[in-house]
Amino acid sequence: MFVIIGYLHIIPRTRASYGKEGKNQGNYKEIIIVNLNCMLKLKIGTLEQEIRDFLNNSIRKKNDLHFKKQNGDWNQLFTALDVIGDTCLAIENFTKETDDWFNENPYLLTYWLLQALYIQQDAVNHLKQSLFGSACHIDWKNPKNAELNEIRRIRNETIGHPVRTGKTWDKYSNNNTTSCTIDRSSLHKDWFRYILWRHSGIEEKGMVFSETIDRQDELFSIELKSIMKKLEQEEKEHKENFKGEKLVDLLNPLIDGVYTKEMINKNDRLVKSAFNHYYDWYKKIRAWLVKRYWEIETTLSIPGTAIVIKKLDHIFKKIEDILNNITNWNDYDLEIYTEAMSKSLDELREHLLLVDKVFSI
């Protein structure tokens, strides 16, 4: 019996039918052919861009993955997004071309489309793993993924391993090993027939490209929406950890008190203890930034703030060395570094106002 692997149309668009259901012809039955000579826009392509934009503007996930870049998840993440977008373009370009274009290279284009669908599935799977860990992979054997796994099976049988599909330890006599031939006369831009040869006999099947493309797009749209929802939830929970805490409020006492004139006089016995107090206060602010953005030096979210922090680290260390007689200095060194610290802390205040705004819920 001839089986068509096809699904309901998901993305609304105009299609003109130019075939009619006909009579049975042996084991085969004609099917309605759907004209795909129109520009298809896959929903997962839009969702891929939305996830990419979210990650580029995120706090938690982007910095977390970049901080652990040596594990490979960072490279895998953006490669997976690129591949999802690239395969969408390939599939969309396939659907907009003419029948004559397909008929010039029917086998090559059939292989191309089936492989593009397969690569896209792997990319979505790797995207999930890079974002949430290997335990969050797509289980192709799970019944809820049966339709996606069916697409993988067809690809494996027809163009992945057509000569022999099955486990290496399977014996031909146990009927799990297949060999496949595509019916050359059936190759069409929207469908084709193929024959599976088994120990027990033959099985004739078919695949409708348009329905398969639509169904994979619909199922992965659900998957990508779920990924986006989880990312948004993680971002919200990270921000809630700092609800009601404003870094600029921590900085205000530092700005108000650290620049008293007696600090300019190195011989004042209160200077060193006052400086140590303010230095500890600054370190506290820095630590709170790290809690929000991981390592300051490697953060991708606040590169401008990271520059100010790096400058303040240097200034505080220089003043500490001067007060402890570790470095050579003259009468103006302490005054110059103190003024530089004052200006840098004012600059940091502007950055912290923006950070507080980002973390406001």
Number of domains: 2
Taking all Cα atoms into account, the compactness measure Rg is 31 Å
Major sheet: arrangement of strands: 1-6-5-4
Shape: elongated
Instruction: Report the portion of residues in β strands.
Output: 5-15%
Mean pLDDT: 81
Helix-residue proportion:
55-70%
* Structural class designation: alpha+beta
Number of helices in the DSSP assignment: 11
Q: How do the SSEs run, as a string of H and E?
A: EEEHHHHHHEEEHHHHH
Low-pLDDT residue intervals, each spanning 5 or more residues: 1-38
Note the gap between the termini: 60 Å
| Count of distinct strands | 6
Helices and strands in order:
Elements: E1 3-5, E2 24-25, E3 28-29, H1 43-57, H2 60-67, H3 73-96, H4 99-104, H5 106-132, H6 146-160, E4 179-182, E5 191-198, E6 201-208, H7 209-240, H8 247-257, H9 271-293, H10 303-323, H11 333-358
Parallel strand pairs: 1-6
Antiparallel strand pairs: 2-3, 4-5, 5-6
Helix pairs in contact: 1-3, 1-7, 3-5, 5-6, 5-7, 8-9, 8-11, 9-10, 10-11
